[in-house]
Amino acid sequence: MKPRTTREIRIGNIRIGGSNPIAVQSMAATRTQDIAATIRQVELLEAAGADVIRIAVDNPKDVAALAEIRKARPNANLSIDLQENYRLAEKVAPFVQKLRYNPGHLYHLEREKPVVEKVRYLVDVARAHGCAMRIGVNAGSVDPEKVSKYSHDDSITPMLESALEHCAMLDELGFDQYCVSLKDSDPNKVIDANLRFADVRPDVPLHLGVTEAGMPPDGIIKTRVAFEQLITRGIGDTIRVSLTLPFENKGDEITVGRQILDDIATGRFRSVARFEQTGLNIISCPSCSRVENEAFIDLAHNVKEMTQYAKMHDITIAVMGCRVNGPGETDDADLGMWCAPSFVNLKRGPHTIGQFAYEEILDRVRAELDRLIEERARDARKVTV
């Protein structure tokens, strides 16, 4: 293994980067305003050995809930996901050790204000409260201006440009207590994006993760491939395993992450240099506090079970749990679903088919899947004639 060369940053009572152990983290899967359930999630993740636990906040009621969660778990290292409302940073900072923002979401609020002013505000808040920061770039929610500059086939360069631009902003503001994540549901793109970033900014600690990795065992395999290829190259200071799991099993993300790290440290490699996806590919996001209906978890598992008859077909089906990442991160799937509180949006590629009740969505997905298989078979017959 190559040694890591990143600088050190502090997140509560731990440090990442430099020669510090690679930290393992996860995210609470419950609605933040369900205080008892979220406290239970934090307890489960702490018991599993989580170094950092992330919670999403999107409105003042979430902020009030976060204050109660902090009282109940005073020693947890909490990271906050600001989602689309960056102005909540000053409200939540007293209760957490780390602020995470997505550059692609900063345009949602105060659109007339320059991005650099929003970043300056976040830095001022973080500095005042001793918080670390994460620049979290996701493939499905990159700054639209960055995406428009490149072809649809190049999803990595917009992510890199966004991450590097925001690193430069934080550097210019004299703030160095930050890390970066570049995530995609394709482990090969995760590998390539992080290799390219580390080549340009070897000093910046990296948070590794394959977003929407899906359900075990496939989601574990995808994650393992990316982690093994990066960590052995000295890349990666903290990790998140993102699996679609029942709420009570959320600690499995920490267990799996530590197993992968232990295997890497002892040379027990189980994967290959590149992930070769063949056959049906089910992408689903990790259950988190952004999920607006717990039925999303059952839906993802039911989709996996129902579609087994099509497992030999090279088709990607995405199941997303919320409005934050769902619309954009289903665009590249052949069939995509993103879940609202009382219905499921069904898409074919970037185009919406319609909205369907949870009890009827599986039948509609099967019908669309059958139609897609037949269309491809028909196209194949035309080619051979």
Q: Keywords for this structure?
A:
single chain; alpha/beta; Sulfite Reductase Hemoprotein, domain 1; 8-stranded parallel beta barrel; 5-stranded mixed beta sheet; 12 helices; 15 strands
Short description:
The protein is of the alpha/beta class and 385 residues long.
How would you portray this structure in words?
The protein is built from twelve helices and 15 strands. The chain is of the alpha/beta class. It has two domains: 257 residues, Alpha-Beta Barrel (TIM Barrel), CATH 3.20.20; 104 residues, Sulfite Reductase Hemoprotein, domain 1 (2-Layer Sandwich). The strands form three sheets. It has an eight-stranded parallel barrel, surrounded by six helices. The radius of gyration is 20 Å and the shape is globular. The relative contact order is 0.11. The mean pLDDT is 92.
